[in-house]
Amino acid sequence: MATVTKLEQPVATTTTRMLSLDVLRGITIAFMIMVNNNGGHAYWPFEHSAWSGWTPTDLVFPTFLYVVGVTIVFSLESRLSRGVAPSAMLPKIFRRFVILFCLGLFVNGFPYFPWAHLRIYGVLQRIAICYLIASLLYLWDRRASTKVAILVFALVAYFIIMRWVPVPGYGVPGRNIPFLDKDANMVAWLDRHIFPGRLYEGVRDPEGLLSDLPALGTTLLGMLTAIWLRTSNTLQRKCAGLLGAGVVCILLGELWNPWFPINKKLWTSSYVLFAGGISMVAWALLMWMSEIRGWKKGWTGFWLVFGVNAISAYVLSEVLSAIVGVIHVAPHESLGQAAFAVLYTVIHPAGTASLAYSICFMLVCWVPMAVLYKRKIFLKV
Q1: Mean pLDDT across the stretch 342-359?
Q2: CA distances from 169 to 61, 143, 176, 327, 329 (A)
Q3: Paired strand residues for 240
Q4: pLDDT tens digits, residue range 301-317?
Q5: Which tens digits make up the pLDDT trace of 115-169?
Q6: What pLDDT band is residue 365 in, cutting at 50, 70 and 90?
Q7: Hey, is 48 helix, strand or coil?
Q8: What's the CA gap between 117 and 95, in Å, rounded?
């Protein structure tokens, strides 16, 4: 649903919109668009890790999910402060969940919609699930302590399931089969039985059902951050606390890594802590630059264009990616491949041409979002 609203001037409070949060969201979406459309010859920072380990690309999605957790608290608290009853918020929460999930299905199927093999999982679907559960949890109990307890439970329970629960037909991880084997793990096994023939990688899916449990942990980290930012501490202290918490999470993730490797495709518990810590440190830096130092002009506008219409920008990029992939300018050459070939004729090596392609693709998506931003149109679900 399109709404025309006035974007508030960013101020250093938690009762109004924070510039640094919109900038963080905008940077995340811009990078997400780039890594999803890299021309196929990208340098390693613009590719996902093949399995365990990480690249900058692997930090994009968890950062967006972390921001979702932050905005849940800010949004619900804003409505609660206006006297809206928690029960009155439920229809909107469920409606947003349904819209996000359906948008994800649309993105997965466009333009042919192969219903018999349509992928059910996806980025927007994971956002929808985590948004729904986290929102209900916050309306149930607004205390930080309950979020910490659920976060610890989610991460530890996932570790126990992945490490010691036997995978049917394979055995116990680390004893009968390699721990975190690509195919012989509980996440992949469960997904193959729930949605056979509908998984992103055939026999596994990076947004599988069981890994929604630790992904909820990522959202909870965002919620805990928002709860901290709503305290009566000075903004400087809040920023320092956010930075310190981020460093601690990074260290905890690295400490857990030898026993439960950082793995984006399985969304391991160590990955939740590590990626969440990176998100916190990044936001603390942006908060220091914009809200504390007051450096707001010149560099923030570009990112705000994506930041205030993030879901719309993502959906546009996925639809456009599908279009340039299905339109053929030659029997065996799509429009996207032809565009990359043109860039490669003047830009070398292939990795640099790929970077140029991803930047151009992102800028093409930025233009219509800039028109919406200039007209103060913010599309919300």
Answers
A1: 91
A2: 32, 42, 10, 43, 47
A3: none
A4: 999 999 999 999 999 99
A5: 999 999 999 999 999 999 999 999 999 999 999 999 999 999 999 999 999 999 9
A6: very high
A7: coil
A8: 26
| Distance between CA atoms of residues 191 and 193, nearest Å | 5
166 upstream amide cis, omega within 30 of 0: no
Q: Domain spans of the chain?
A: 1-47+296-381, 63-294
Alpha carbons 101 and 341: distance in angstroms, whole number: 35
Complete DSSP assignment for 92-117: HHHHHHHHHHHHHHHHHHTTT--GGG
Q: How much is the pTM? A: 0.93
Give the strand pairing for 328-330 and 377-379.
unpaired
Q: Are strands 377-379 and 2-4 parallel, antiparallel or unpaired?
A: antiparallel
**Choice among 19-28, 79-88, 156-165, 372-381 with the minimum mean pLDDT:** 372-381
The amino acid that residue 141 corresponds to is: D
Across-strand partners of 177?
Answer: 173
For 323, the token pair is: 């279009």
**Nearest-angstrom CA–CA distance, 322 and 278:** 31
Q: Which helix (H) or strand (E) holds 333?
A: strand 333-334
Cα dihedral: 158, 160, 161, 162 (round 10) = 80
From residue 252, alpha-carbon distances to 166, 232, 256 in Å are 27, 28, 6
Distance of CA 294 to the CA centre of its chain: 27
Whether the CB-CB separation of 222 and 72 falls below 8 Å is answered with yes
**Residues 338, 321: Cα–Cα separation, whole Å:** 13
DSSP-H helix ranges across the chain: 19-36, 60-81, 86-109, 123-140, 144-164, 186-194, 212-229, 235-256, 269-287, 300-307, 310-326, 335-346, 350-374
Mean pLDDT to the nearest integer, 234-261: 98
Question: Distance (Å, rounded) from C-alpha 64 to C-alpha 337?
Answer: 29
Q: Which amino acid is at 52?
A: S
pLDDT in tens, 267-301: 999 999 999 999 999 999 999 999 999 999 989 99
